């Protein structure tokens, strides 16, 4: 019995692209926050804002790629 269905090659590629973008988003936001902290001795963003921003970017971009894939497949039929 499987708990999750297997991902297709396209779904796997879309998730890899989304996870990489989410990671780079985390790194950019952390860099901005740390630079602000060093310059002004206070945090610009809270850790929860940084956390949710990275997650929203990763899952949001995956959703956009998924919609794009569905639209392309629809036009090729």
- Rough shape? elongated
Number of strands: 0
Strand content: under 5%
Radius of gyration, taken over Cα atoms and rounded to an integer in Å = 17 Å
Largest sheet: none
Structural class from helices and strands? mainly alpha
Distance between the termini: 33 Å
Number of discrete domains: 1
> Average pLDDT value?
90
**What is the H/E string?**
HH
Explain the layout of strands and helices.
Elements: H1 9-40, H2 47-76
How would you sum up this structure, described in words?
The chain crosses the membrane at residues 21-39, 45-65. Keywords: Membrane, Transmembrane, Transmembrane helix. The protein has 77 residues and is mainly α. It has one domain. Helices cover 81% and strands 0% of the residues. The protein is built from 2 helices and no strands. α1 (9-40) runs antiparallel to α2. The chain is elongated. The two termini are 33 Å apart. 6% of the residues are buried. The mean pLDDT is 90.
